[in-house]
Amino acid sequence: MTGLCAVVFAAGEGTRLRPLTTTLPKPLCPVGNVPLLDRALTRLAQHNFSGPALVAVNACYLGDQVSAHVGERAHVSREPGPAPLGTAGGLAYLNSWIAGRAVLAGNSDAYLVPRDGAGRDLAPLLDDWDGVSVRVLAVAAGSRPPEFGHLRFAGYSLLPPDLVAGLPLTKAELVQTVWRPAEQAGRLEVITYDGAYLDTGTPADFLAANLDSAGGGSLVAPDALVTGRVSRSVVGGGARVAGSITRSVVFPGGVVGSGEDLVDAIRLGTDVTVYG
User: Fold this and answer.
1) Which class is domain 4-198?
2) Which phi and psi angles does 36 have, rounded to 5°?
3) Which of 111, 115, 134, 185 is deepest in the core (most CB within 10 A)?
4) How many CA atoms lie within 13 A of 35 on its CB side?
5) CA pair distance 269, 273, nearest whole angstrom
6) Where are the domains of the chain?
7) Residue 85: left if φ>0, alpha if ψ -120 to 50, beta else—which one?
8) Model confidence at 251, in pLDDT bands (50, 70, 90)?
């Protein structure tokens, strides 16, 4: 589609995942041994969005790490800080790069699994778009608070150029500045996502996404050293597990000592542990 670019939001502080995000930005936290940001960039590439002319990543919190990780794969927008500008403010800060285009905006922490395993799972959001309506991807709210009838937001939205160009350069979120006004004006379309979604923002959801990525078993990086017991867990590259882990995640380079028994836990380094 011409006149359309993509933006991945990766500037947030990930406060709900602390202390995991004290030294590592949430977009670089791994799900299934793949950083969340890489998952987002791969998804966009499946829809022909790749390279710094078509894809931008915003960065603020621990922005040096985000910028270095992205490299030349996308345009990096370093917000001035100290706090991120929010989703709407982040787009406004990218105004010169967006250059009047429509925007496919996605959260780097969105973990999406299409029901049929298809690679182009954002197609329902993009196909046959009129270029005027605001589209948001959504899933059944279940036990979570609903945001659109019985549905809740699932990480991606499609924004027409006139509404993007009109965003003020202030700290603000799209839900207040674009989605709700579009809803009131009859310009909002809610597109149901045919698959599973987790925002990975809490330890419980982050752990659930990792366990889902392991497909009901365990996922162990080839260079991890496991001399203990691993059950339904994810073990990252260079990690060492001498103890026992069950339904747990060990970050790359993490260590679980021989006397430890982790259950429903996330381990970073040698002693940072968060329970889901």
Assistant:
1) alpha beta
2) -55, -40
3) 111
4) 15
5) 9
6) 4-198, 214-275
7) alpha
8) very high
